[in-house]
Fold:
Amino acid sequence: MSTESLKKELHTLIDNTENEEILKMGKEELVAYQVGDREFNDLSYLGSENRAELEELTNEDPMKDTISYEEFKKHIEEWR
Structure:
């Protein structure tokens, strides 16, 4: 299928639907692809604020909240 015929088919489908939710979902998907915001393919339902937070968390040092075993043992003794 050529790009032109695919566009025509999509236009026809859009013109023939009255379902606002489907139209909104289609728009969100197209906008996301156009701006290159597809790192989280299965999380495309997230708003921009949540996506930014998630991206920030994925860039965090995974060891930032880690303590050594010795520190852990010390904390356990303090809790007892």
About this structure: The helical segments are 3-15, 20-34, 48-58, 69-79.
